[in-house]
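During the second year of the project, the team shifted from modelling isolated chains to modelling whole assemblies. The rationale, set out in the original proposal, was that interfaces cannot be judged from single-chain predictions alone. As a representative example for this report, we include one of the complexes processed in the last quarter. Its constituent sequences, exactly as entered into the pipeline, are reproduced here:
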Amino acid sequence: MARLNVNPTRMELSSLKKKLASAQRGHKLLKDKRDELMRQFMNMIKENKQLRSEVEQGIAEANRYMAVAGSVMQREALETALMLPKQEVELDVSEKNVMSVYIPVFDAKYRTSDPDDIYSYGTAFTSVDLDGAVSALSKIFPKMIRLAEIEKACQLMADEIEKTRRRVNALEHIMIPDYQETIKFITMKLSENERSTTTSLMKVKDMVLKQSHDFK
Amino acid sequence: MSEMYKTAVIGDSASVSGFAALGLSVFRETDPAEISKLINRLAANGFGVIYITEPAAALVSDTIKKYRSRKLPSIVLIPAIEGNTGDGMRSLHEAVEKAVGSDILK
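Output from the structure prediction step:
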């Protein structure tokens, strides 16, 4: 702990006391913020983990179909079949404020809402596995959107939690003890001055009395 | 306040072709410098979500890290056709470690 480099005056003392009070209030608020952020983060990270494993499984399934489709169809035919999609996705992005962390909220808008109307090719020249791949992907896609949203939210919240934790620690272990020590130092110094003034006054009084009454 | 954003997929041809059927913008790219440039260009041009295959993401981890603390775009790792490398889960664990101080998901 280091004492701050200030003059031991009453003015400094009162301003330091004010600073200490606001530091303590800030510390309490930040601590509450950190705890609440942490609580929400834990909920989110659980959902995130769950979603990620679901999405990874879904994509793995689609990839299995795709691998088969790629082996029975020619590369060019496959690319051509998928070249002109029927489906179109647009993301409506708004934002949500969670404990002053702004996290994005994605709302996917599809051009065709019919899940059977997503195949952009005739079935004559394509493998049935391609249908399987496309349908598996379209099934998992809403979860992928949610995953993008929640993954970003988790990253942003992790950043904010780290920042808040640093602030809380700085206040708790450095700023507040420093203020307290400096306040103690100034109080001691001031009362020391006071005592020294009193003693010298008593001395002067003695001297004056001795002079005016001239008694021994 | 809301705006319309687009969605992109980056990766090797075999892994990402299927996403074209869903109407996502598909970019077949395997060169690190090109992927990095592509991500920057997409981020500046109204793409809200970028899915990238794990092998492709491993090549440009610096670029991806740069966008982590931004609100948009959200860059999400997905398994490629060769299988799951676990990089996507690992980034989740990293976030937990950053926030909590230790990885409590294990």
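The first strand of chain B starts at residue 3 and ends at 11. The CA atoms of residues 41 and 92 of chain B lie 25 Å apart.
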